[in-house]
Amino acid sequence: MIFIVGGAGYIGSHVNKLLSNEGYKTLILDNLSKGHEEFVKWGKFIKGDLKDKRLLARIFKEYDINAVMHFAALTDVRESIQDPGSYYKNNVKNTLNLLDAMRENVKKFIFSSTCAVYGNPLEIPITEDHPCNPISPYGRSKLMIENILEDYSRAYDFNYVSLRYFNAAGADPQTEIGEWHEPETHLIPIILDAAIGKRENVQIFGTDYPTPDGTCIRDYIHVMDLANAHYKALRLLEEDKSEIFNLGNGNGFSVKEIIETCKEITGEKIHTIESKKRPGDPPILIGSSKKAKRILRWRPEFADIKDIIETAWEWHQKLNRETI
Ligand code: UDP
């Protein structure tokens, strides 16, 4: 059985779908602070929090868990600057509870890390050996766990894979699940909210970055491609190996380019306003996924940004038909 912590959230729920379709049994733990119970359509669900050490001990005793995947974290860079305490408690302290609880029983761990561990890149595309100098408490909290994993895995004899996601986007092509944050802070769903008239305009955070059109460039990677990398990482752990991988498409798109592509796909007018820079935002983040391609034999299937946004748009319309 695979224990998916945070499996009611955006990325965790897509991983749960994919693993379940591949025939794995899954157990989901989520405190539903960000996730949605409606997203747990596969496997067994326990509502609970990583703060609860007694619950964790009971879970590892009761269930035959073969591997742990850990998605439960706070992920908003801006919020992490305003309230670092919550980030260190949720992302670091609670993860330690999980690692301590699994120590005796489980030897395989997959960690949701982030390109925010790199900070302002010195070179593009970013490879895994690029120095890690995070510029936000969020990025630092994830790097702390990567460092802890290195020490723990050596001392307590387990293997782990840390996956540094670039910008997760898109949705399950069958539209059973997708992106749903409240409040929404991510660029693509915010633009799609403007397209359906739920929001008057889209703020562009910073227009004088050192990029061709002055707006930030990001590497958008489809959530199903991320899910597939977790499946492949699980197979790697079966070979008794620990690794860190970037997961991105290797292409960068500016905020303005994403807005234009959303206009094209939705056929709607999208009003924009130029706003101040958002603290903690590096100008360009583009990842090299060569290592994942080579070792995991992983290939993104949704390499075209239009395909990514198409699936996001299908899901976004469905979600808003059902929840408005
Ligand atoms: N962004 C923006 N307006 C918004 C939300 C985001 O201009 O309403 C920009 C943000 O500054 C960043 C990019 O879009 O450069 C992607 O932001 P998002 O929050 O989606 O992901 P992040 O890069 O923070 O993980």
UniProtKB/TrEMBL annotation:
Q: Which domain of life, per UniProt?
A: Archaea
* Residue ranges of domain NAD-dependent epimerase/dehydratase in the record: 2-248
Q: Which UniProt keywords apply?
A: Carbohydrate metabolism, Isomerase, NAD
Similarity comment text for this entry: Belongs to the NAD(P)-dependent epimerase/dehydratase family.
TM region(s), chain numbering: none
Protein name as annotated: UDP-glucose 4-epimerase GalE
Q: Which Pfam families match?
A: Epimerase
Its source organism is Methanothermobacter tenebrarum
InterPro entries to which the protein is assigned, alphabetical: Epimerase_deHydtase, NAD(P)-bd_dom_sf, UDP_G4E
Q: Which NCBIfam families match?
A: galE (TIGR01179)
> Which cofactors is this protein said to need?
NAD(+)
Q: Keyword Chloroplast, does the record have it? A: no
